[in-house]
Amino acid sequence: MITILSVELAIATVVTIAEILKNNGLAVEKKITTSTVDMKDESRGRPVQKAKIEILLGKTSNFDELMAAAAEEREAGDVEEQS
């Protein structure tokens, strides 16, 4: 299991990463939670609420196979570059 957590501007990046992992067959979505968190506004010194997302992902059943195949491809590429 992996949990990806983000606040405010990084939310789009976290969602993109989760989608890439899912589309490549590496992860399945288990749970998504959204909330707000209180943070201090550095410029004004007062508390503000910020959006937060937490995405819980699990490995797919073929995760290990896909990672092994990717590692073999990288090793084959390294050997070709050294030749």
What would you say this structure looks like, in words?
By secondary structure, the protein is an alpha+beta fold. The protein has helices at 11-23, 63-82; strands at residues 2-7, 27-40, 47-59. The radius of gyration is 19 Å and the shape is elongated. The chain starts with a strand and ends with a helix. The mean pLDDT is 89.
Kindly provide the radius of gyration, computed on alpha-carbon positions and rounded to a whole number of angstroms.
19 Å
Category from helices, strands and their pairing = alpha+beta
Number of helical elements: 2
For the largest sheet, list the strands in their spatial order.
Answer: 1-3-2
How many domains? 1
**What would you say the CATH architecture is?**
2-Layer Sandwich
Could you estimate the helical fraction of the residues in percent?
25-40%
Helix and strand element order? EHEEH
Largest sheet: 3 strands, antiparallel
Distance between the termini: 39 Å
The CATH topology annotation reads as Translation Initiation Factor IF3
Low-confidence stretches: none
The percentage of residues in β strands lies in: 35-45%
What is the CATH homologous superfamily assignment? Alba-like domain
